[in-house]
Write a structure and sequence with these properties.
Distance between the termini: 36 Å
Bound molecules: arginine
Number of strands: 13
CATH architecture of the largest domain: Orthogonal Bundle
Number of helices: 21
Number of domains: 5
Shape: flat
Strand content: 5-15%
Structural class: alpha/beta
CATH class of the largest domain: Mainly Alpha
CATH topology of the largest domain: Isoleucyl-tRNA Synthetase, Domain 1
Oligomer: single chain
Strand order of the largest sheet: 1-2-4-3
Radius of gyration: 28 Å
Length: 582
């Protein structure tokens, strides 16, 4: 519906440009909003306000001209001009019903496989393997998963890339420590089962023990030179660490598998080529022995040129070099039209530089979208980066244990008729869902406060609330013994609540479109919360099973069933498992 009105507005702009009302060459971005207040219509636009200046016209007069130039159509029932020149559109009810009937008949709920299908590479999770995954990796992993699922649902060819950090100097100290521990085979395995402790022990020796740091450095050199013994130790370490990651992914219900791992080290052989390409384009400058690129787009605070170092004096390569090689591969080999990076916002300068440089190096052209979806930090209640009780970083595995424990407490404390094993299942689903949803429902660009009580609450925009709402709609059908998919008859909009719910349901495709475009799962969370709210009001005000006549009963059953399917689909796109009962 939104798209259709946008097309109508674009046609109006074209007509007004052709007849001279609007100057040539003005191509406004047509923006349609969903007004909060129903009396302002179903959609509103500020188009006339935006165009008034270039057109040298009064905005209200221009709004009238726009309305008059909209081609005749069956969608817009009525247009009002409001305030300084907003245009409000009221949608024809028959159209609304028709859209919902189409959604009803479609397994994809009216989300058309988006016309154009793109190959989208999405780089997410991407932890460093030297340590165990901690709270900082949560955001990339679950936001990335939700965006990947949404893009797939839209019909894109989505390729996940888990760009794990498995290379670099820290591995020297880990190998040195491993060499010593491995003398006693069994204990090394055991020790690697707790990577965090293993890392700390190695780091302590690196800092304190005479000769250890030198040994670590020489092991890195040997590893990079392809020494079989070092390679084998390293491989063993990496495998163990990846197994830890996979456990976390499986528990979180994230779709990543070992197949999606494309580690930093996978690009090692491409790095000399990257340097050669940059040199060939005349982009390289030697600075104190290091190979650097200076881009005029990036200057320091004092206006001094900022280098991107791509090769150190000793010949070693850097994070940036690998990222250049990764773009080269993703665009060149995987044929990506769009590459998305779900990475901490603090790396935004790095990605700005990489993207700009890739275009200059010819690794991406103007048709390739390169996007950094940055996210903020996870904070504790004290407003500082989230820490475990002992003040250390919180391992993700521990965090998820606590989530499930708290959820179980909550459920068993509520007085429930579920069996113990059902309770355990519900607790697992609710616990994981709460952690995920708390993250997904916040605008990813800001920091957010990790707070157990809020995320596990049954009130507000939370996982427990939505999971419960979903089971409540399901129970309508269970109680009546009706198959939700077999409901017959036409939707009718008898009361304000029927209509509100119908309007919410009709927004699903446009919400999906905006999540896919902007990589913002919180749009979907906010929408599902509103949908659940609209259903709640509908359920209170409108008898479903006891509706006055059979046609109305069927219409309401259909609206309820569509609500349930939309909630289920939406939660699924967020990577959230749903429940039959709770
Ligand atoms: N391993 C990096 C980190 O933990 C994130 C990698 C993100 N992806 C990339 N292509 N740079 O900070």
């Amino acid at each position: 519906m939104r798209e259709q009105i946008e097309v109508l507005l674009a046609a109006a702009v074209e007509t007004l440009t052709a007849n001279g009302t609007l100057p040539q060459g003005v191509t406004p971005r047509i923006q349609l909003d969903r007004p909060r207040d129903k009396s302002h219509g179903d959609f509103a636009t500020n188009l006339a306000l935006m165009l008034a200046k270039p057109a040298k016209q009064n905005p209200r007069a221009l709004a009238e001209a726009i309305v008059a130039a909209i081609p005749s159509n069956a969608i817009i029932e009525k247009s009002d001009i409001a305030g300084p020149g907003f245009i409000n559109f009221f949608v024809n009810q028959q159209q609304l019903i028709q859209q919902l009937e189409q959604a009803w008949a479609d397994p994809n709920l009216g989300v058309a496989a988006s016309g154009e299908s793109h190959t989208v590479v999405i780089d997410y999770s991407s932890p460093n393997l030297a340590k165990e995954m901690h709270v900082g990796h949560l955001r990339s992993t679950i936001i990335g998963d939700a965006v990947a699922r949404t893009l797939t649902f839209q019909g894109h060819n989505v390729i996940a890339q888990n760009h794990v950090g498995d290379w670099g100097t820290q591995f020297g100290m880990l190998l040195a420590h491993m060499e010593d521990e491995l003398k006693d085979q069994a204990s090394a395995r055991l020790q690697l089962s707790d990577l965090e402790t293993f890392y700390k022990a190695a780091k302590k020796r690196f800092d304190d023990e005479d000769g250890f740091a030198d040994r670590a450095r020489s092991l890195v050199v040997k590893l990079q030179g392809g020494d079989p013994h070092c390679q084998q130790l390293w491989q063993e370490f990496i495998n163990t660490s990846l197994e830890h990651c996979q456990e976390v992914y499986d528990r979180l219900g994230v779709q990543l598998t070992r197949q999606d791992v494309m580690a930093e080290s996978a690009y090692n052989d491409d790095l000399p080529q990257v340097i050669q390409d940059l040199r060939g384009k005349g982009l390289l400058v030697e600075d104190q022995g290091a190979q650097c690129v200076f881009l005029e787009e990036f200057k320091g605070k004092e206006g001094e040129p900022l280098p991107i170092i791509v090769q150190k004096k000793d010949g070693g390569y850097l994070y940036a070099t690998t990222d250049l090689a990764a773009v080269r591969y993703r665009v060149g080999e995987l044929n990506a039209d769009r590459v998305i990076y779900v990475v901490d916002a603090r790396q935004s300068l790095h990605f700005d530089q990489i993207f700009t440089l890739c275009r200059k190096a010819g690794y991406a052209n103007e048709n390739t979208l390169l996007e950094h979806l940055g996210f903020g930090m996870v904070l504790g209640k004290d407003g500082r980066p989230y820490k475990s009780r002992d003040g250390g970083v919180t391992k993700l595995a521990d965090l998820l244990n606590e989530a499930e424990r708290r959820a179980l407490e909550l459920i068993s404390g509520k007085g429930t008729d579920l069996t113990a094993s059902e309770q355990a299942h519900v607790a697992r689903v609710v616990g994981i869902a709460s952690v995920k949803y708390a993250d997904l429902s916040k605008n990813r660009t800001s920091d957010y406060m990790f707070d157990w009580d809020t995320m596990l609450s049954f009130e507000g925009n939370t996982a427990p609330y939505l999971l419960y709402a979903n089971t409540r709609v399901k129970s309508v059908f269970q109680k009546a013994g009706i198959d939700a998919l077999a409901v017959q008859g036409e939707i009718q909009l008898a009361t304000e609540q029927d209509e509100n719910l119908a309007n919410k349901l009709a927004q699903f495709p446009e919400i999906i479109a905006s999540v896919g475009k902007k990589g913002m799962p919180h749009f979907l969370c906010g929408y599902l919360f509103e949908l659940a709210g609209a259903f709640s009001s509908f359920y209170e005000a409108c008898p479903i099973l006891n509706a006055d006549d059979p046609a109305l009963k069927n219409s309401r059953l259909k609206l309820a069933a569509l609500t349930q399917r939309t909630l289920e689909k939406g939660l699924g796109l967020l990577g959230i498992e749903t429940l039959e009962r709770m």
